[in-house]
Amino acid sequence: MLAAGPAPALNGTSNPARAFLDRHPDLADRAGFLEFTRCFSGPELPAQTPRLSSNIAPLDALLRGGIARGRISEFVGRASSGRTSLAAAFAASVTMCGAVVGWIDSEGAFDPASMAAAGVDLARLLWVSVRNGTDSRRFQRHALTPFARRRSILLKAGELMLDAGGFGLVVIDFGDLRYPLPKGAALRLGRATERSGTAVIALASQRMCGTFAALSLAVNRAGASFSRIEVAAPAIFDGLRLEATVSRNKFGGSYASAMVDAMADPVGQIAVPLASAAKSRPTAMVHHGGRN
Amino acid sequence: MGRIACIFVSDFSIAAIVRANPALEGATLALVESLAPHAELIAVSSRARAVGIRAGTTIAQARTISSELAVALRSLAAESLATDALVDVAESISPVVEVGPPGCVWVDLAGMEWIHSEEKEIAAEIVRRVRRIGMEAAVGIAANMEIARLAARGGEIIAPGMERDFLNQRPLGALDLGNSDGGDLETSLTRLGLNTLGDLARLSPEVIGTRFGRRGVELVRLAHGGNSRPLMPRRALEIFAEAIDLEYGIEKLEAMGFVVRPMLERIAERLNIRGLVGGDINLVLGLDGHRMDSRRIAIAAASNEVHAMLALINLALEAAPPGAAIESIRIEVESRTPRPAQSDLFAPPSPAPDKLQVTLARLSALCGTENVGVLRPENSHRPEAVRLDPFNPPPAPSAPLNGTAAKNVAQLVVRAIRPAAEIEVMCSRGMPEFVRGTDLGGRVISFAGPWRRDGEWWSGASGFARDYYELALDDGGVYRIFRDFNSERWYADGVYD
């Protein structure tokens, strides 16, 4: 019996399902069973689900057209991993079409200047900060810790937005919240997302929604790029090189990865002509690699 | 010939008190001007009347008749607010409305045949709407105001041309002559053998005028069904208010919710009837010791959501609790016009305006008004300066959008650190080498800068001058830091992410 046998290793270096089927050719026609036992990294949801594109070619190619509408997509990474920039690309794509984005900010980290530079139409972005909302006596009555209060308000705000309907994208920035959501809360959020048909991006330092997220994209900083116009001139921060890896995708395509360049906006920060900076970059680039 | 409807609430002062205190509904209730034992009752409820209590008896006498008698002070404020509510109902039917004696409002029904096929439907609709605002009314429809008022007492609809037949059977007492010219006129007419309006109509106006003056002539004209002056409308209300005087002071905010909620429900119902939504709230609290506490509660998005309004009031009171027990509450809600809900077939979906307003109100109640809206960079030289605007998304472009060309490069954004965190930076030959802070720290791998920013020096001491750097630390983060020349301290105000 397959169920009683040892679980196949999922080392991620090759297709584990294919390796397993190679070892058990008699089970080759039972892909559905394998999918149920999570030995198979194939699609768990139909690929026809409408997608939301980021307009970033490598990212869209990695995600097979973008993130799914009506599902939760997690962008997981540490500080400076580039997860917020990728979420901003999706927000820009949505507002460019005239739709509305909701951004729930757990730690007041939303920076409107850089978001606008990333192409987000701020007039179409509803910003909700829960940073100071935890003072409400309504939540103090329940004797919750500040962490639990913030999480409760985040989820409540997310559900309110999703129940309103009509949002093209809702971004829930969990910030530095360290623990995954309880299964009940993640299920509620997943159900609300499915009902509304809105794409939801959960930004966090680790996976928050568990199995209720359709996509989990691990984002790491592959490198930071600094360049100089001249040898003696001050360095210029060009941007980050990001490595995005699909650690879980219910639509298939897990373990694939892509490199995405995220360029800093030099216009708002420095007074150096862009053309001269770009011209000199290849000759004087200082590249510092390394993952988080 | 025009058609006038009269909305009439019998025992209006009682109805107003019951509307403000729904717990008194169905009670054996009497109203007085003072609570002294020998004070006379000025109005009694129908149940009190049924057990034999009449207006004019003293409180002590009435209590001997029924021990269940509840005595309350007459409230002119409650009557005024109930009149406003009646006017709201009337204006939801027709724009031409005149306020009559207490409990009586006239509505001009000209043109209403386009909306309702029968006057009976109009009357039933008015009764339903009055019930929604917490009162019971009767509606009479006739050719002019006075006949409509007489008809309203029986909830009758007088068909055109049938006014004389209707009036002929009315007793003179139906005119409430005692309220205007004293009881003498009715008595005098009765002594002359005139018992009905039909008797009066048979007399010549000149004869009556000689004996009883101008009022007598008006009565004869009314008995003929001839008074047909047009209604004098008043300006529509822009502020919807409800008030209550409490018998005992409220000291706990939780208890206040039980009082405020019905008031907000009544205001929301009135706004709903008028097709309006509630905006900013003025809350006026009368406190123990004749003190007043007045506060204005800004609403991010206008809505008639009672839950959201109540939550905002609670938040405002929790932030700055009143200094003494609350003895009276007055809530004024500014009305706003709801956003039009017309959407475009070719535009991307967007939140329905009414739902969006309710959602914004709920989010404001949940997170605070200052945390919901459109966050924009302020027109300032300081990079951290932001302002919050109300969320009012522009309509989506109606033309079908062509697909935007995909890019190969994303734009890097900053996660702001608010307020900027003070850090310790160790420099070597003027260049940052090591950074230590509360949530960050490490050796500097590479840095860009410095980039000088200064400004507001023209505004005096608040001017700033900073040198900005971008640092890549070995903890994995790329931070935006600055050195403040005024304080000679270092701060981190963002992390590239």
Q: What percent of residues of chain B are in strands?
A: 25-35%
CATH homolog superfamily of one domain in chain B: DNA polymerase, Y-family, little finger domain
Q: State the distance separating the first and last CA atoms of chain B.
A: 75 Å
Silhouette of chain B: elongated
Multimeric status of the protein: heterodimer
Low-confidence stretches of chain A are 1-13, 31-40, 267-292
What does this structure look like?
The complex is a heterodimer of chains A (292) and B (497). Chain A is α/β, with parallel strands linked by helices and 292 residues long. Chain A has two domains: 15-44, no CATH class; 51-226 and 236-267, P-loop containing nucleotide triphosphate hydrolases (Rossmann fold, 3-Layer(aba) Sandwich), CATH 3.40.50. Chain A is 30% helix and 26% strand. Chain A has nine helices and eleven strands. In chain A, the strands form two sheets. In chain A, strands 3, 4, 5, 6, 7, 8, 9, 10 and 11 form a nine-stranded mixed sheet that branches. In chain A, α7 runs parallel beside α8 (183-196). The longest helix of chain A has 19 residues, at 146-164. Chain A is globular, with a radius of gyration of 21 Å. In chain A, 48% of the residues are buried. In chain B, α1 packs across α4 and α4 packs parallel to α12. In chain B, the strands form five sheets. A six-stranded antiparallel beta barrel of chain B has the order 15-16-17-18-19-20. In chain B, strands 5-6-1-7 form a four-stranded antiparallel sheet. In chain B, strands 8-11-9-10 form a four-stranded antiparallel sheet. Chain B is of the alpha+beta class and 497 residues long. Chain B has helices at 12-20, 46-50, 59-65, 76-93, 119-132, 145-153, 163-168, 177-180, 184-191, 197-201, 205-223, 253-274, 306-319, 353-367, and strands spanning 4-8, 29-32, 41-44, 70-73, 97-99, 104-108, 138-142, 239-250, 277-287, 291-297, 326-336, 372-377, 386-389, 409-411, 414-428, 431-436, 441-455, 464-473, 478-484, 489-496. In chain B, a hairpin with a 3-residue loop joins β9 and β10. Chain B is built from 14 helices and 20 strands. Among the domains of chain B are: 161-236, DNA polymerase, domain 1, CATH 1.10.150; 239-336, Dna Ligase, domain 1 (2-Layer Sandwich); 414-496, no CATH class. Chain B starts with a strand and ends with a strand. Chain B is elongated. The model of chain B has no long low-confidence stretch (mean pLDDT 84). β5 (125-129) of chain A pairs antiparallel with β12 (372-377) of chain B, so a sheet runs across the interface.
